[in-house]
Amino acid sequence: MEISWIQAALLGFFACLSSMPGMGGTVLGNYTLGRPLVGGLVCGIILGDVQTGILVGAAMQVLYIALVTPGGTVSADVRAVSYIGIPLTMIAVKSMGIDAGSAEGLALATSFGSMVGTLGTVLFYGTSTINLAWQHIGWQAVEKGDFKKLYVVDMVLPWISHLICSFIPTLIMCKMGAPMVELIKTYLPMDGLAMQTLFTVGSLLPAVGVAILLKQVVTKALDFVPFFFGFALSAGMGLNLIGAAIVGGMFAIVNYKIQMVQVEAKKHAVTASVEDEEEDI
Amino acid sequence: MEKKLSKKTLNKSFKNWYYGHLTCFSQEHMQTFGYLCSMLPIIEELYETKEQQMDALKTYTAFFNTEPQVGSLVVGITAGLEEAKASGVEDIDGETINGLRAGLMGPLAGIGDSLVVGTLIPILLGVAMGLSTGGSPLGAIFYIVVWNVLMTFGMRFLYYKGYELGGKAVDFLVGEQATAIRESIVMLGTIVIGAVAASWINVKTSFSMTAAGAEKPFLVLQDTLDSVFPNILSAGTVVLCWYLLSKKKISPIVVMLILVVIAFVGVLTGFFNTGLAY
User: Does residue A238 belong to the interface with chain B, where contact is any CB pair within 8 Å?
Assistant: First the structure.
């Protein structure tokens, strides 16, 4: 599977839109086009194999399901995951003859994705550093009262940062990717220690993505119960994700009703005690 | 002198925030320029002379960063306050506006990160991944449509709520009913994540013990574990990662490296074996 210059350029353009901070804005850019599942669809359309794209994207999505960037610190960069990682993994699964939907396909996708994503943080810091220069121009515009320039600073000049830190890296990596995968195939046999470790890491890594999310929710052992409830719904009772979401939704409604009963009870208690005091007077 | 912002200006201000809050991000001034661009149409309408406009804009040159979706509320609130300030309401000056802004961005970032990024997106993605099983584009399309519709209307709603209610709008997010809703949504999110973990994490061992001379192994560890609880190794791996991340305060990248070491040792000892070959 080869990637043409035009295809690589298109991937580069989507990388510009989807990163954090991206030119698509956060709603359509980072949180839509940047999510690996959506990236899988886009890469699949560009490379002409939607099914493989989605399978690879979905596998990477587990790892990055909770990509929270508190205070602008990133542990992985979505433009690199979605528009460098997915195309290269698509090439790899095809040339290695692995089924993208199998456990091995999943493992390859996650270990590739995490490598590219971690390396991609360099692109994030690069972009935000170049943006400092545009912001400097912006401060001068504010001083002089040259307001129209503010829009240029906020929405036009950052394209230059992305040309350097998103478009060119994606273009080159995607173009160089196919020969690289061939090299890996020649020098690292799949039953050797290195590739075995790579695939095993790939099967372990999604646990990190899930754990990052749990870190926010779980502070004591009891908080694990809803998580294991969902786990049991799927692993033990064989419900699919939509079914599990419906059952979870039912419990969420029950929880809401109980909490609201408590809130109402508290309100009544307060008004009742106020009335009592009035009677005393 | 009563001043009223036109609908058109408010819309323009909202659109500038909706699109531009993070386009010119740097570590030094994260969302400051997005904020400036969204206040600019408002200031240009409210103040006539260039000097007044420059003076009013100074308020918004202070550092700003929050969770941008929920943060729409703050932009709306300041639009309302700026209108009041221009109308000559006492007690409102640039300093009060900035105090409110600085006071809100932390708590709203906390609510936004846990509710939008930590719960809503994972729920939508979890369902979308279910719909995309087998490589169908349906799930991805579902996520694109539902997320964008929810956010476009949600952010607009919060912006105008903030503009109408001013400082009182905050109750709307931290009041008792809001807390009950939030906790219930987080519960739903945690259940869905449990199901995502069970269906997408696939840690299996190939460890087995065979007695000398016997044809079949007397212990296939994976089968024994499955009879205890299906996919128990995956659940264990998640709990281990959670323990390292939150109890040991290890960064995600180091946790990943620890997993590389575990995988390497596991492959060497025969605990893990993917059974692949070209």
Answer: no
Q: Per the domain annotation, does B278 fall within a domain? A: no
| pLDDT (average), residues A80-95 | 91
CB B158 within 8 A of CB B93: no
Q: Is A100 an 8 Å CB contact of chain B?
A: yes
Q: DSSP labels for B208-234? A: EE--TT-SS-SEEHHHHHHHHSTTHHH
Count of domains observed in chain B: 2
Give per-residue pLDDT as tens, A108-137. 888 888 888 877 888 888 998 999 999 999
Q: Tell whether B114 and B13 lie within a shared domain.
A: yes
Query: What are the chain A neighbours of B109 within 8 Å (beta carbons)?
Result: 70-71
Q: What tokens appear for A178 in the block?
A: 């196919």
Amino acid identity at B170: V
**Mean local confidence (pLDDT), A142-149:** 90
Q: Average of pLDDT values for A52-80? A: 79
Q: Give the domain range for residue B225.
A: 202-269
Reduced to 3 states (helix: H, G, I; strand: E, B; else coil), residue A132 is helix
Sequence-distant (≥ 6) Cβ neighbours of residue B19 within 8 angstroms: A25, A155
Is B2 within a domain? no
Binary contact (A204, B143; C-beta < 8 A): no
In this prediction, residue A156 has a pLDDT band, given cuts at 50, 70 and 90, of very high
Reported as a pLDDT band with limits 50, 70 and 90, residue A268 is confident
Per domain, the residue ranges of chain A are 5-217, 219-281
What pLDDT shows up at residue A223?
86
* pLDDT confidence band for A206 (50 / 70 / 90): confident
Smallest CA–CA separation between B33 and chain A, in Å? Answer: 6
Q: What residues of chain B lie within 8 A of the CB of A232, using their CB?
A: 194, 198
In chain A, residues with a C-beta closer than 8 Å to the C-beta of B68 are 26
Q: How far does B10 lie from chain A, in Å, by closest CA? A: 17
Interchain contact, A72 vs B183, CB within 8 Å: no
Q: Is B31 left (phi over 0), alpha (psi -120 to 50) or beta?
A: alpha
Q: Give the residue from B156, B174, B193 where a domain finishes.
A: B193
Whether residue B152 is found in the same domain as residue B211: no
Higher per-residue confidence, B168 vs B27: B27
Same domain membership, residue B239 and residue B121: no
| Domain assignment of residue B274, yes or no | no
Proportion of chain A above pLDDT 90, given as a percent: 47
State phi, psi for B87 to the nearest 5 degrees: -80, -5
Structural domain contains residue B40:
yes
- Is the confidence metric ipTM above 0.90 for this complex? no
Same domain, B21 and B85: yes
Record: contact B139-A37, CB cut-off 8 A:
yes
